[in-house]
Amino acid sequence: MDNIQNVFVIKTDIQEKEFYLKTSWYKSENEFFQIQIFGDGCCWSGRFTTAFADKYRELVDENITNYRNNVFTALTKDNNDYVYNFSSVNNENNSRKFCWKKRFEGSTALIVHGIVELDLDTEASSNDLIDFLLHKNDQLMNQIEETKHNSEKLAQYLDKTKKDLEDFTSMKVEWEATLYSKFRDLLNTKKKRIQLLEELLKNKTEGCDTD
Length: 211
Hints:
Blueprint: E1 4-14, E2 17-26, E3 31-39, E4 42-49, H1 50-59, H2 64-76, E5 82-89, E6 92-103, E7 110-120, H3 126-210
Antiparallel strand pairs: 1-2, 2-3, 3-4, 4-7, 5-6, 6-7
């Protein structure tokens, strides 16, 4: 969808089982994120709306910006600040409930930070997840190659700039030496002219005294 801003996948252990969480984050006033959970050979899908976000952020006393950032951290980074729970609804495998709980710092207490209800997604499979991860890997490889290319161009530019600076410094030294030499010659010429004028003035003065 056009309003999807970012997509992330993390692998995590939930109740001693391995699951993959794929979250698609929306740039929308009504949608918060869509989630797919892969595990046990199945996929479950659900969505978390802004209305749900308002409900749970009031329970944990967070404003919308802080809540969004914390939910993003909880579902895109496998960390110790949150505990996940994934359970069936009414003992039916077609419906699941995914819950993340936030730890209180310095305490073993947990508070429910959000809950998403998911339905079995028969149109999705682990192959879709693999294809997505391969596509993301290709994108990352292209970004690495582009970054490497840009770094090489930058290195070449820096080398050229360094050489230009060295050439300019060398030219500056030559210019200063040439300018100093010309200034010295000019100064010597002026000194000689002054000496000549002083001698002429002295000779003229002596001639006047003899008369």
